[in-house]
Specification:
This protein is α/β, with parallel strands linked by helices. It has a single domain, classed as Class I glutamine amidotransferase (GATase) domain (Rossmann fold), CATH 3.40.50. Helix content is 30%, strand content 23%. α1 packs across α6 and α2 crosses α3. It is globular. The relative contact order is 0.19.
């Protein structure tokens, strides 16, 4: 089995190193044979899609090529390939959702272009970078089941989030908003009727340890295993 990590790898990035470590922690727990590969966003071609059993959309935006990342997310969603997006990954999954499901073809991310009308992702009034925050999860959601609880504390690295102007529009579509902080902000979503399609604005990877692999990462890798055996 092969996992593609979509992102522009930076060996000095805490979240990128944490991603590599978290994958290994969950692999050790599940005792599975899974190879993972970082794919630079500038080198993505549609020919590589079929070579992977799962996609992790990594933290660390702006990506070198945003449109390539959107293409990967769309492919994973439409082909029922397990996909997890964290921080920047979450943000780009929202953009793909707005464009290809909700019909906002010009949906954009303020980090790339500030001068467009349909900014679904905008700069947060108060940066979350470096903050640990409590979140509430919707009981019975896939994410809550993986955690085994409905209140969690996770760490953020982001300066961008969902534009308040589009919250009701986002909620009107098929995505389930399953995690929010004490202010009610969207922090976690999942796509129903999919083996694993989840986005988190926080970065669960950095909380993982070898003795306590992160349940969301373990659930993601377990979904790759189960999906590849179908």
């Amino acid at each position: 089995m092969k996992l593609s990590i979509i992102g522009d790898f930076n060996p000095n990035s805490e979240t990128h190193l944490g991603t590599n470590n978290a994958i290994q922690h969950s692999k050790n727990l599940l005792q599975c044979d899974l190879d993972s590969y970082w794919i630079d966003t500038q080198t993505i071609t549609k020919e590589i899609f079929d070579h992977f059993d799962g996609f992790l959309i990594a933290p660390g935006s702006p990506y070198k090529n945003m449109e390539n990342v959107i293409d990967v997310i769309q492919y994973a969603r439409e082909k029922n390939i397990p996909c997890l997006g964290t921080c920047g990954g979450f943000q780009h999954m929202i953009i793909e959702y707005a464009r290809n499901i909700l019909g906002f073809k010009n949906a954009e991310h303020e980090e790339y272009n500030q001068n467009v009308p349909e900014l679904f992702i905008t700069k947060l009034k108060c940066s979350l970078k470096g903050r640990n925050m409590e979140l509430n999860l919707v009981p019975g959601s896939k994410v809550a089941v993986l955690y085994g609880k409905t209140q969690i504390i996770e760490k953020y690295y982001c300066n961008y989030g969902v534009n308040h102007e589009y919250i009701n529009i986002l909620k009107s579509g098929p995505f389930n908003i399953v995690g929010s902080d004490y202010e009610g902000e969207i922090r976690v979503f999942e796509y129903p009727e999919h083996p694993f399609f989840i986005g988190t604005l926080y970065v669960p990877q950095v909380q993982s340890t070898n003795s306590n692999p992160h349940p969301l990462m373990t659930g993601f890798i377990d979904a790759i295993i189960n999906n590849s055996n179908i």
